[in-house]
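ok so for the tutorial part 2 we go from a plain amino acid sequence to predicted structure tokens. step 1 is just haveing the sequence, like this:
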Amino acid sequence: MPEITVDLKLKILSTLAAKDSQSFSLEELTQIVFPAGTEGIVNRSELIVRQSKVLETLIFLADLNLIYLDSQTDRSSIKKSNVN
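step 2 — the prediction. this is what the tokens look like for a chain of 84 residues:
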């Protein structure tokens, strides 16, 4: 099972919070939190590892009720607070 780091949690939460009216697919979030950089295209096995880390983090954050993870569309968004 991939290790979920605090840094990864924060990157995902800040990405979702910055665009709170938008949802993101697993692929989109993976590209945002693990940018390809100068090395270019990532090999297939590394992409799978990165997506696994993102998915595990999304499930963790959804279990904490911080984000909404739509299992039918694989899209995630930040949960909006109803506090006034």
